[in-house]
Amino acid sequence: MSKPAFRYSHYDLKEQRAGTVIEITLSAIANVRLMNGSNFERFTETLKHQFLGGVAKKSPIRLAIPEFGHWHVVVDMEGHNGLAESSVKIVDKTPAPRMQKAPQDVTGK
After folding, report:
1. Per-residue three-class SS string for the chain
2. Which of 22, 24, 47, 80 is least enclosed by beta carbons within 10 angstroms?
3. Where is the DUF1883 domain (predicted)?
4. In a structure prediction context, what are the per-residue pLDDT tens digits for the chain, which is 109 residues long?
5. Which domain holds residue 77?
6. Residue 39, in any domain of the structure
């Protein structure tokens, strides 16, 4: 198993609900990749992987978790000069959906 030839910062977001918003703060232009567990594993093995994000030219940036699952954020400098300090925080944690009672027919029909 090979590792990427560039340095990166990894943030394990654990399990998150769809719609949860995360905020990534950067000190310089960097690549930001939001990936599920299997794509993060592919990333660490330098295999083709899918992610949300891309080159972040401003800070902070916000991304929404697209579906329930275990998520990871990677901040890297591949293709950019220098190093970037980074931090990640959850800014809008979507609450669990509430069970609602079905409307009742009060007319007795």
Report:
1. CCCCCCCEEEEEEEEECCCCEEEEEECCCEEEEEEEHHHHHHHHCCCCCCCEEEEECCCCEEEECCCCEEEEEEEECCCCCCCCCEEEEEEECCCCCCCCCCCCCCCCC
2. 47
3. 6-93
4. 556 667 899 999 999 999 999 999 999 999 999 999 999 999 999 999 999 999 999 999 999 999 999 999 999 888 777 778 999 999 887 555 554 555 544 544 4
5. 8-92
6. yes
Residue 97 placed within a domain:
no
* CB contact set of 65 (below 8 Å; sequence gap of 6+): 13, 16, 17, 18, 19, 20, 21, 22, 34, 71
Amino acid at 13: L
Q: For the chain, what is the domain count? A: 1
Burial class (CB in 10 A: 0-12, 13-18, 19+), 21: middle
pTM for the predicted model, two decimal places: 0.79
Residue 41 domain-assigned (yes or no): yes
